[in-house]
Sequence to fold (265 residues):
Amino acid sequence: MNTKNDYTIQSVEKALKVLQVFNSDNYNDSKSLTLMEICEETGINASTAMRILYTLNKNGFVAFDSNTKQYSLDIALYRLGMSMYNSIDVHNVAQQHMKPLADETGLVVYLAKVDYVNDEIVVIDKVFPNTANTWPQMAARAGYILPLHSSGIGRLYLAEHTDDEIRAILAKKQLTKFTDKTLTDVEQILKVIAEIRKTGVAYSNCENEEYIGSICAPIKDYEGKMVAGISLGGIKNIIYGKNKDKNQKALLKVAKQISVDLGYR
Fold:
């Protein structure tokens, strides 16, 4: 057994690099890749990549489709993710409020957690109202990373930063144009964020999915720091219809209650 620290660290880093390459730029899609595609995206040679993939596959972290010769993430990662998912304090606190809010508004309720280290927003729960059978299966699911530039919760997170900080954050992100309404110009995004700072509420009007809109509010901890966001999502005409103000009020009330439960005053 090789006990050299540098060997062990490099091996782990390469394995993590392989796992990370399965992250999709489009949060609607899962990602499947061939060996050569993985090598191209990671810069790892084929022999090393094959050994890593074999080990990950053997332990349930990566699946292999013998028909397409493609690899994808497997169940072991889901189990690890669920272990973390169940231990997130904000989720445990928010969970009791989400179903009542969904049923009260007739809209889908999303909860997403802030990752300040990577400047990311990760969906950790989604709850449908009792009328779920009338809803399309809207794309963002637990584990998906919401785009900062076009999602309401992402913009709430950006609003916590200065304009210069926002420019620096977005410079490191791919500003994908998901629909014709997606804003990708940073200066235009900053104008939207300036309004968010005034109102404390963010909207996404068909910018991530056609015909789908959302109303979003921040969840803050005892330090007044945004740790998560909660949103109402649904068909645009319903989201921005006659009950918009009523639903927004209900959302803000729940966001405030969750924040208070987390120690915010």
User: Anything to note?
Assistant: The longest strand covers residues 226-235.
